[in-house]
Design goal:
The complex is a heterodimer of chains A (about 140) and B (about 160).
Chain A lengths: L4 E6 L3 H8 L8 E6 L7 E2 L10 H16 L3 E4 L3 H12 L3 E5 L10 H6 L5 E4 L2 H7 L2 E2 L5
Parallel strand pairs in A: 1-2, 1-4, 2-3, 4-5, 5-6, 6-7
Helix pairs in contact in A: 2-3
Chain B lengths: L1 E4 L7 H11 L6 E4 L11 E2 L5 H10 L2 E5 L2 H9 L4 E4 L12 H9 L5 E3 L6 H6 L13 H14 L1
Parallel strand pairs in B: 1-2, 1-4, 2-3, 4-5, 5-6
Classes of the chains: A alpha/beta (about 140), B alpha/beta (about 160).
Chain lengths: ~140, ~160
């Protein structure tokens, strides 16, 4: 059996730091990182946000190119919107998907997190209260 | 040295102005990452933006970090074993799109190495006090283990 390929996606800043804080979970796999800052990760994608949502199409194209090459078995993201785009594209490639909502969302799921629900095989929050409100799974947190 | 940081998305003049005022009263140098090219603060060593290498260097040398309540900052301070004072951004002052940083402070207040204030007038006293740093045991707790185990078992 070959080692699963894990594609780990996060925007720069807090999302990226959270992904790294849990990176021990991926060390036994062939893990490849994607971020929005070329200094941080092997693959760089564009920024997009709710105010510049159309840039999501650029991110989608970039994610298709990356996944075409790597054929990941699992795609994991801690957000933000570019991570949601990654999960949508991952489903086209029949990869399994994990959304881990940012620990910054202490009272409700982020917008990207809510939208990720139908695309996430494993849909996680880092707060028990948010789990009770939304049905997302609480399994732990980076803090 | 005191390190003031407001993240990479938006300036936070309410916090930086108050830290500039405090810096005028103390001998300790204050380095400020302001996310603002235009503002000038006479008592601060201003670097509007920092790359991640510079950011890590500065945070490791800091005695205390004073910051917006961003998770990136909290994680970086913990990794560097430096205490952090968080000031949440407020949406009604145009400091962020919503008040999620207030929730962050409410939930994280009292964790090892983490303090917070809503009112910047309380910063001066707090900054001058001797704050305990997070201990090494808090870096990898049961919460992180649970998350890692769940991720591994899903990936297979």
């Amino acid at each position: 059996m070959t080692t699963p390929t894990v594609l780990a996606v996060a925007s720069k800043g807090g999302h990226w730091r959270q992904l790294n804080a849990m990176a021990g979970a991926f060390s036994q796999y062939d893990v490849r990182f994607v971020s929005t800052d070329p200094e941080l990760a092997e693959f760089c994608i564009s920024e997009c946000s709710r105010t510049e949502w159309w840039r999501g199409f650029v991110v989608a194209f970039q994610m298709i190119m990356i996944m075409w090459r790597l054929r990941p078995d699992v795609v994991v993201s801690t957000g933000a919107l570019p991570g949601l785009v990654a999960l949508v594209i991952a489903r086209l490639f029949r990869a399994r998907t994990v959304w881990i909502d940012s620990i910054a969302n202490t009272e409700s799921m982020s917008l990207s997190g809510r939208l990720s629900r139908p695309f996430a095989g494993l849909w996680l929050t880092q707060w028990p209260d948010v789990s009770r409100k939304t049905g997302a799974i609480y399994a732990g947190a980076v803090l | 040295m005191i390190f003031v940081t407001v993240g990479t998305q938006l300036p936070f003049p309410r916090l930086v102005r108050e830290m500039n005022r405090i810096a005028g009263q103390i001998c300790e140098p204050v380095i400020a990452q302001t996310c603002d090219d235009l503002a000038d603060y006479q008592n601060l060593i201003v670097e509007p933006y920092m790359n991640s290498e510079r950011y890590s260097d500065v945070i490791e040398q800091a005695r205390v970090v004073v910051a917006h309540a961003g998770i990136g900052t909290v994680l970086a301070a913990r990794q560097a074993q430096v205490p952090v004072i968080l000031v949440p951004r407020r949406a009604n002052l145009g400091e962020h799109r919503n008040d999620h940083q207030e929730g962050t402070v409410r939930q994280l207040l009292g964790r090892p190495g983490i303090t917070g204030v809503w009112d910047t007038a309380k910063l001066a006293e707090l900054v001058k006090s001797d704050l305990p740093a997070p201990d090494t045991h808090s870096v990898s707790g049961p919460a992180l283990e649970g998350l890692v185990t769940t991720l591994r078992s899903y990936i297979g």
